[in-house]
Design brief:
mainly alpha, 21 helices, TRAP_DctM, transmembrane transporter activity, DctM, transport, transmembrane
Length: about 425
């Protein structure tokens, strides 16, 4: 059955069928050929129970928050401000790409939205200032992945929902690895541009008074992040309530900067409906698939298989890492999460690992999938914003950052407290 599931899943995805539909079709096939129960009769109840959760209401709110910030022009102001603070480093404006992605990751909760935001704002600068297109676009694609690590993160919300673990604890656990990953991206950029200065383009410095004035455009994003995350950890709001407060804060920021209009609101709401519908179809389809897999005994098969390998806990987790890297080449990231969590997480817990820690490790591996071909969504988002050149350039530019993520995954395995320090300290 394991072979049937893997081959069928890849085959249906290769036909360009929407991922949510693929999950339902695969569930129907497993139900017909492997299950002893007529699960299709209970499909309506499964769909309702999978979507009837207050936790999931946070998803459209965080999507709308990001849409408002992007379409109101706040992204351009943030990018220009960070340009004045970090473009003196070797690599110049590449660091502004990473820094802007980091700041928007702290509000949008979506990697694709973050990558699209930064790419739209930054790409016109690349040709004007003579940057290497590979490194410049690769940094944007990689920086965008931080959207699912730095809280608030839609993927962490889905992980918490599926594993019944604490979302505030997951948000805390993702903060240090997310910020560390951003700094590692900047460090690898410096190393590359010191070795090959021609790749980094122009390094620019600005008068200190001008740098200080630019902080005005950064303060609203910092305050918004503090409002969302702070309200959760102070116990003033649940993640869902904090997301709603964040939308109100984003609207206020857009209003202050003069970015509110009927056209902006229409585009933001339309974009929110589209993205949320896609996410929910995947979540519901995955819930149905997971139920059919459990009823057909796939979990028992996998458990027996892994126990038969006789691996130590470390060996087991390295096999899981390798599995996610390989699957990340072929399966869209959110789908990869929701399909594998009910199967892999119980086995991880049996090995003695912490569910919060594994969630962060999984997110790092999922981030890698966003910038590895052929299904790396951020690669296509950045290429779409470029409007010239080949996709191969974006892929090549993302390689150093992909290796940096792999290093972070090994650091998390070697030093679990990178993720667990804040949850334990503030428990």
């Amino acid at each position: 059955m394991i072979t049937y599931v893997g081959v069928t899943l890849l085959g249906l995805l290769a036909l360009s069928i929407p991922v949510g539909v693929v999950l339902f079709l695969l569930g129907f096939g497993i139900d017909i050929f492997f299950s002893n129960f007529p699960l299709i009769r209970g499909l309506g109840n499964m769909v309702w129970s999978a979507s009837n959760s207050a936790t999931l209401i946070a998803i459209p709110f965080f999507v709308l928050l990001g849409e408002i910030l992007v379409r109101s022009g706040v992204a351009e102001r943030t990018y220009a401000a960070l340009d004045r603070w970090v473009s003196w480093l070797p690599g110049g404006l590449v660091h502004a790409n990473i820094a802007t992605a980091t700041m928007f990751s702290a509000t949008s909760g979506s990697s694709v939205a973050t990558a699209a935001t930064v790419a739209t704002v930054a790409m016109p600068q690349a040709e004007k200032l003579g940057y290497d297109p590979k490194l410049f676009s690769g940094a944007i694609a990689a920086g965008g992945t931080l959207g699912i690590m730095i809280p608030p993160s839609i993927n962490l919300i889905v992980y918490g929902f599926l594993t019944q673990s604490s979302i505030p604890q997951l948000f805390l656990a993702g903060l240090i690895p997310g910020l560390a990953l951003a700094l590692m991206f900047m460090l690898i950029t410096v190393i590359i541009c010191v070795i090959r200065p021609d790749l980094g383009g122009m390094r620019r410095t600005f008068p200190f008074p001008q740098m200080m004035r630019a902080l005005v455009d950064l303060v609203p994003i910092v305050l918004l992040f503090g409002l969302i995350v702070g309200s959760i950890y102070r116990g003033w709001a649940t993640p869902t309530e904090a997301a709603a407060v964040g939308v109100a804060g984003a609207f206020l920021i857009a209003f202050v900067f003069g970015g509110v209009s009927w056209d902006m609101l229409t585009q933001s709401l339309t974009g929110t409906v589209k993205i949320t519908s896609m996410i929910m179809l995947i979540v519901i389809g995955a819930s149905f698939l997971n139920f059919t897999l459990a009823s057909a005994g796939l979990g028992r098969e996998l458990t027996t298989f892994m126990e038969g390998l006789g691996l130590s806990p470390l060996g087991f987790i390295l096999v899981v890492v390798a599995m996610y890297i390989v699957l990340g080449f072929f399966i869209e990231t959110l789908s990869l999460m929701v399909v594998t969590i009910p199967i892999i997480v119980p086995m991880v817990l049996v090995q003695g690992y912490d569910v919060i820690w594994f969630g962060i490790l999984m997110i790092v591996l999922i981030e890698m999938a966003l910038i590895t071909p052929p299904v790396g969504l951020n690669l296509y988002v950045v290429q779409g914003a470029r409007k010239s050149g080949s996709l191969n350039e974006v892929m090549l530019g993302a390689i150093p950052y992909c290796l940096t993520m792999l290093l972070m995954a090994f650091l998390l395995i070697a030093f679990p407290n990178i993720a667990l320090f804040l949850p334990h300290a503030l428990q």
